[in-house]
TrEMBL record:
Superkingdom of origin: Eukaryota
A single cellular component GO annotation: plasma membrane
Region entry Disordered, spans: 334-353
Protein family (similarity comment): In the N-terminal section; belongs to the leguminous lectin family.
Name used for this protein in its record: Protein kinase domain-containing protein
Length: 685
């Protein structure tokens, strides 16, 4: 009976999905080259309105697409044109959809900088064809003569602009920009001579580039990274450690996508000029998107249901009812596994090392959190969303639902067991995990006091309790002990990667427990002196070590973040504080205080009010250590073992480290990191 119901339901859903095959929802598209004989070629060439456009369309040549003709091959033809290609089907974007696209291209110019142009762009647009008169500086994206009524020309684009146009604030004739419904860029990076990105991303040297455009819907982070190559290379084969982060900004693209159909593709424009023409060749392209709701569950499916013939619709309802009874029977017949308790004493820590982490089912966690109801949401970070839940035995848990897909289930399970074996009184114990249907979740015991950020900057004003000087010093000691354990004493050496106040959980007695270490990376043995190379700078801007922006992560990255956290606890300010005006970053502001000799005078009012005589010396040590920890050079930072020796006043290690002098002035950040932070500061959030 159940098998028959499932088969009929499968046929019904298949029929419904095929009612509109021209709309893609979840898409993974890879085109390593553009061979015109390939019957799986996934692109199309939309025809422009002949009433205003009479130029040359994009064309194939040698397994490549030339959006603008190669000027070396059409020297006698100086015509303006818009070259535009799109993925063959429109895509249904959702508000929570992240995406990643990669493409290789070349810009060929026959003029000297900056006399050629206009440029090239990747776009996601509501319009299939180029808007009217969108030649030249408008890059085939926006019309200078038509109003954008009802969002018909809404778009997101990343432009590679080769002409400094008047009236739209272009920084130079070679720059990279993020465009939102306008060719006046929301954020940009200058790549002209004299800029930080010159000469590697200079657009006039006839280079071949591979670019990655990434959008994380949960963090609203847009990143554009590139490599400079000498010949066309497929996206998937490019070495990750050679990427250069060109542009990084924040924007909530869900306001643009609004659960509607969009087109993805490329556009390039070229104005006729006696100075010289420009050609743009596209060599490869890949694209994939991902939303938390998977293949869709929204209004489009309901609309399709309504269009199905009545007999088939009734049959589907019958099958769904049968499937519900079947699943209910499976759930009730399942034996509930035994749960581990959270160790509280050293004896329990020792006796419980042999236990394994509990594997929860997706059904259990959905029920516990009321289907991940927004009302149960208690926190959100770069890696996931945390929900309060109540298990069937009445115990409260915090369920962290990871936002992005993780590795294979077997690898995830093995890593969770390793993490579960990490037991320390200052680590929030992992109670269990779930990996099912592509969803990955971590389960912790719920802590009523919440996280440290609620108290040090009054995040939600949920409590009248204050953290005095003694409590804050103890919290910093607790976090340092947790990191020392992860770096030196855990079963497998671990780097946390996101040390911040929101990940420090407080017990009822205000002891600190470091959370989210289950999202860290396992690293080699310390004797091997290796580091991790990653694809992106994961973590929280403001507390990230400079080397992380180049994809390098080690235990010294955690040391840097700890230094920033210590300053937040001491001064009661966020790592990025708009009230600081000129010195927007807390670290810059503290260095200014150090140069003025007024580090203690600006401590948080609660610290100063409760500070005893001996506390002044302790805070001097904390601030000295914090500035050493936050040095831009990893080799100049102490280890967490040394930090613990200072905070716990171990005479041998404490004296040695405290005698290490601080620089007279703030150590400079690497140029690339300063550029990223400056771009963030100037972004219109």
């Amino acid at each position: 009976m159940e098998a028959w119901g499932l088969n009929v339901l499968t046929l019904a859903i298949t029929y419904m999905l095929h009612l509109d095959l021209d709309v893609a929802v979840a898409l993974r598209f890879e085109q390593p080259s553009f061979n015109v004989t390939d019957d799986k070629l996934g692109i199309s060439f939309p025809k422009q309105d002949p009433s205003w456009y009479h130029g040359q369309d994009a064309s194939f040549q040698n397994n490549e697409i030339w959006l603008n003709p190669n000027p070396n091959e059409v020297l006698t033809r100086r015509e303006s044109n818009i070259g535009r290609i799109i993925y063959k089907d429109p895509i249904q974007f959702t508000a929570d959809m992240s995406f990643l696209t990669c493409f290789s291209f070349e810009i060929i110019t026959t003029a000297t900088f900056p006399l050629s142009g206009s440029g090239f762009a990747f776009f996601i647009s509501a319009s299939k064809t180029a808007p009217a008169h969108s030649t030249g500086r408008y890059l085939g994206l926006v019309s200078p003569t038509e109003e954008n009524e009802n969002g018909q020309f809404d778009f997101f684009a990343v432009e590679f602009d080769t002409h400094k146009s008047d009236g739209i604030d272009d920084p130079s004739g070679s720059h990279i920009g993020i465009d939102i419904n306008s060719v006046k860029s929301y954020a940009y990076a200058d790549s002209s001579p004299g800029s930080p990105l010159f000469p590697r991303l200079f657009l006039y040297n006839n280079y071949t580039f591979t670019a990655w455009v990434e959008y994380n819907a949960s963090t609203r982070l847009i990143q554009v990274s590139m490599i400079n190559a000498t010949s066309p290379t497929p996206c998937l084969g490019s070495p990750l450690d050679t990427r250069l982060l060109a542009l990084r900004s924040f924007y909530n693209l869900s306001t643009l996508f609004r659960n509607r159909t969009m087109y993805i593709g490329f556009s390039a424009t070229n104005n006729a000029s006696e100075d010289g023409m420009q050609g743009v060749g596209l060599f490869s392209w890949s694209f994939c998107n991902e939303g938390e709701n998977g293949r869709d569950t929204s209004n489009d499916v309901l609309k399709l249901l309504c269009e199905v013939l009545l007999p088939l619709f009734l049959g589907c309802l019958f099958c769904i009812a049968g499937l519900y009874v079947y699943r209910k029977w499976r759930t009730n017949s399942r034996t509930s596994p035994q749960r581990d308790g959270l160790p509280q004493t050293d004896e329990e820590l020792t006796s419980s090392r042999g236990k394994v982490a509990q594997q929860f089912s997706l059904i259990e966690l959905r029920k516990a959190t009321q289907a991940f109801n927004e009302a149960n949401k208690i926190a959100e970070g770069a890696f996931g969303i945390v929900y309060r839940g109540t298990l069937h035995d009445g115990s409260l848990v915090a369920v962290k639902k990871l936002k992005q897909g993780v590795r294979k289930e077997q690898e995830f399970e093995a890593e969770m067991h390793v993490i579960h074996k990490c037991r320390h009184r200052n680590l929030l114990q992992l109670r269990g995990w779930c990996y099912e249907k592509g969803e990955a979740m971590l389960v912790y015991d719920f802590m009523e006091k919440g996280s440290l950020d609620w108290y040090i900057y009054g995040k939600d004003k949920v409590s009248m309790e204050v953290l005095d000087s003694e409590v804050r010093l103890n919290i910093l000691r607790d976090v340092a002990r947790a990191l020392e354990y992860l770096h030196f004493h855990s079963p497998t050496r671990i780097v946390h990667r996101d040390v911040k106040a929101a990940n420090v959980i407080l017990t009822n007695k205000f002891h600190a427990m470091l959370a989210d270490f289950g999202l860290s990376r396992l690293v080699p043995d310390p004797d091997e002196k290796e580091v991790i190379v990653i694809n992106e700078a994961a973590g929280t801007l403001g507390s990230l070590a400079p080397e992380v922006f180049n994809g390098i992560v080690s235990d010294k990255s955690d040391v840097y973040s700890y230094g920033v956290l210590a300053l937040e606890v001491a001064y009661g300010r966020k790592m990025i504080d708009k009230s600081l005006e000129k010195d927007r970053y807390l670290l810059d502001w503290v260095w200014a205080l150090k140069e003025q000799g007024s580090l203690l005078e600006e401590l948080h009012s609660e610290v100063r009010a409760s500070m005893h005589t001996n506390h002044a010396d302790q805070w001097k040590k904390v601030l000295h250590i914090a500035l050493l920890c936050s040095d831009p050079a990893p080799e100049a930072r102490p280890s967490m073992k040394q930090v613990c020796q200072v905070l716990e006043e171990s005479s041998e290690g404490s004296l040695r480290l405290l005698q290490e002098p601080l620089p007279l002035t703030k150590p400079p950040r690497p140029d690339a990191v300063q550029f990223i932070l400056s771009s963030y500061s100037s972004a219109r959030l």
